[in-house]
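About this split. The held-out portion is used to measure sequence recovery: a designer receives only the structure tokens and must propose an amino acid at every position. Recovery is the fraction of positions where the proposal matches the reference. Here is one held-out target exactly as it appears in the evaluation file.
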């Protein structure tokens, strides 16, 4: 059991996380001081997600919430479903096609039929502005008052005609000199106060023209939608808050007040995924697992992340879909369309495919009884006996076994196998898809997954964990308490965080250590001030980073500089970069010049993320509604009578066995042994 915080100021205060998923909305409330937790899980309401958020908060016994952190997939879904704003892009004259030219690389090298993703802006709405900034920040062609006025008039006409909803500005080399962008931004915001304007030097002031353009387009594309969503969310949740502002989980795994996040909504593009990685990292550290793979399988997708020494990995670029990059600090996570609602179908080559299409929350899998007619992974698990139809979500949802059997029977007819064989195949394909995702983030990066433990959570993660672990050779699995609510728990413990990135673009031997130190000091002051404005108290934790590459190389590698810059830090940076390059690629060039591409400063709130949580199981341990045995079919074996436990009943259990919980089901496969740890997790090890 973790020790509660001792400060009087934190007693009887609730830190609450709400995670809105594609299928369910989860809530975890932590009472700081006593360490007790309260949880809720309700069906998501995709047409208006805030309804489910408010419904989950209604379940609270006490509404004194000191901090409410919300993780959401609204931004991600808007981009994937192309349901965002109608945009206009203002760029330097002659570069109007940059959003359409994109990059020459493609996901499948020999696929001649592959098409580039459609940009978020129509080609006829890409306008060239007569101005030019040089690569060193020099003004080559001034932005005149006449040009600015004509741009403003043009935008006013488009807005009044109802043809655009938002404006994105991305001028050439604005990351070295933002004067022209800032002038256009000021004038447009003054003339069109109700029209969102996104400026690349504010959103992502980094090198690479297409990536910067794609990022500012994404920000503008989701800004009207997210502004409305945040207003709606704030109105629905304000009655639950104890005088504190609503807080949003950001893509970097940190949080920010809604007033800080709303002007730059692109920072929420991975909000819905970040909570799971943060929660998974917490339980990896709690169980003394230095290397861990977070495995979050929900109803729609599966998210895979890596944790090292309790720290979440981060990257500075993420592709919402192939070819549409967003350059902003995000948790290092890989997502695939594999979840309980993933649809199983036979393709034109008579091969079984599982996902990425999903049945979603409504109608959902056929066994939900809401009109679903396609076989899904959840239906297959029910046919195989892995789910208790009378105790799904703690008995709040009654599953319909016959509906699941009928959909799998139709799939079996197409595959010319028995219904049980079809269900077994669906589960096997889903497991292999998720195993491949783990291989992508481990083996393809030169990391051996056998050195890691899997932290399995999400509504379906513990049900598939053994099968996935066996496929990649992992021998240890940790299933946290309330595994179906781990993402909401991660949101609840996430700390306020602010990042600032700026471009350099110079060789190390051309950089003054004193000048760079001054840049870092100014940026540290900026991010810490923002952190305090968001409500942080105490001594923040600051981390400094520099992204380098060998001169004329195409891609950079980020190096952690620590919290302080001691004299000679540039020389140490050079040595650390050579070592990092050697570790990542197997070679280095110690005699070649190194270029500093950009720098980053991160400030993190100082409060204790543990929050004194008491994971001694309190109630709803899974004993209610469960039977002493259940008939389950495993691959390669006939139907077996398997004992069923609640988590509180587990001391040490040899598989095959099932542990039923209100928000998830843990399947202990043959050859595995499960035991309850002192911190409330289930540890499964390969016998």
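Reference sequence for scoring:
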């Amino acid at each position: 059991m973790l020790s509660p915080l001792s400060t009087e100021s934190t007693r009887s205060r609730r830190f609450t996380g709400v995670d809105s998923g594609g299928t369910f909305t989860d809530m975890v409330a932590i009472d700081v001081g006593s360490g007790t937790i309260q949880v809720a899980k309700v069906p998501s309401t995709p047409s208006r997600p805030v309804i489910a958020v408010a419904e989950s908060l209604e379940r609270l016994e006490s509404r004194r919430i000191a901090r409410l952190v919300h993780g959401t997939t609204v931004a991600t879904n808007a981009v994937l479903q192309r349901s965002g704003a109608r945009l206009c892009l203002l760029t330097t004259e002659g570069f109007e096609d940059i959003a359409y030219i994109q990059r020459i690389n493609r996901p499948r090298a020999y696929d001649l039929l592959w098409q580039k993703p459609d940009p978020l802006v129509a080609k006829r709405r890409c306008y060239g502005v007569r101005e030019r900034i040089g690569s060193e920040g020099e003004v080559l062609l001034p932005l005149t008052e006449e040009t600015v006025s004509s741009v403003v008039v043009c935008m006013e006409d488009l807005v009044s005609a109802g043809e655009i909803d938002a404006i994105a500005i991305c001028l050439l080399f604005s990351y070295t000199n933002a004067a022209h962008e800032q002038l256009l931004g000021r004038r447009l915001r003054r003339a069109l106060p109700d029209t969102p304007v996104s400026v690349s030097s504010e959103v992502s002031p980094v090198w690479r023209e297409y990536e910067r353009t794609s990022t500012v387009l994404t920000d503008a594309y989701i800004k009207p939608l997210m502004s409305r969503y945040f207003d709606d969310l704030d109105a629905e949740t304000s009655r639950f808050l104890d005088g504190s502002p609503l807080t949003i989980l950001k893509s970097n795994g940190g949080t920010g007040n809604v007033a800080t996040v709303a002007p730059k909504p692109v920072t929420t593009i991975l909000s819905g995924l970040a909570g799971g990685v943060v929660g998974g990292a917490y339980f990896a550290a709690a169980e003394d697992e230095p290397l861990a793979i977070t495995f979050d399988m929900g109803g729609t997708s599966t998210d895979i992340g890596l944790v090292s020494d309790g720290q979440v990995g981060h990257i500075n670029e993420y592709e919402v879909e192939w070819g549409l990059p967003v350059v902003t600090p995000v948790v290092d996570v890989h997502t695939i369309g594999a979840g309980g609602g993933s649809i199983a179908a036979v393709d034109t080559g008579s091969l079984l495919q599982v996902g990425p299409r999903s049945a979603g929350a409504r109608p959902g899998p056929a066994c939900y009884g809401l009109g679903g007619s396609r076989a899904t992974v959840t239906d297959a698990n029910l046919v195989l006996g892995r789910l208790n139809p009378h105790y799904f979500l703690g008995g709040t949802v009654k599953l319909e076994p016959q509906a699941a059997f009928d959909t799998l029977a139709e799939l079996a007819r197409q595959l010319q196998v028995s219904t049980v064989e079809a269900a077994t195949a669906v589960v096997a394909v889903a497991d292999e898809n998720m195993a491949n995702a783990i291989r992508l983030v481990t083996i393809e990066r030169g990391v051996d997954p056998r050195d890691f433990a899997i932290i399995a959570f999400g509504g379906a993660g513990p049900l598939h964990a053994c099968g996935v672990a066996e496929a990649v050779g992992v021998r240890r699995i940790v299933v946290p308490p309330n595994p179906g609510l781990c993402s909401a728990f991660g949101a609840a413990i996430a700390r306020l965080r602010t990042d600032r990135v700026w471009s350099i673009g110079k060789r190390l031997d051309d950089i003054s250590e004193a000048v760079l130190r001054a840049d870092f000091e100014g940026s540290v002051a900026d991010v810490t001030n923002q952190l305090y404005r968001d409500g942080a108290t105490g001594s923040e934790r600051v981390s400094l980073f520099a992204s380098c590459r060998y001169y004329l190389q195409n891609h950079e590698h980020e190096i952690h500089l620590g919290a302080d810059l001691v004299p000679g830090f540039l020389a140490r940076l050079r040595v650390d970069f050579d070592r990092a390059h050697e570790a990542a690629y197997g070679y280095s060039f110690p005699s070649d010049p190194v270029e500093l591409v950009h720098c980053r400063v991160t400030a993190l709130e100082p409060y204790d993320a543990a929050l004194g949580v008491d994971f001694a199981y309190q109630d709803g341990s899974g004993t209610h509604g469960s039977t002493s045995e259940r008939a389950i079919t495993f691959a390669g074996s006939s139907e077996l009578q398997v004992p069923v436990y609640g988590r509180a009943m587990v001391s040490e259990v040899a598989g095959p066995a099932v542990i039923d919980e209100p928000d998830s089901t843990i399947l202990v496969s043959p050859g595995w042994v499960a035991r309850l740890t002192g911190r409330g997790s289930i540890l499964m090890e390969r016998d």
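Annotator remark: The CA atoms of residues 109 and 115 lie 12 Å apart.
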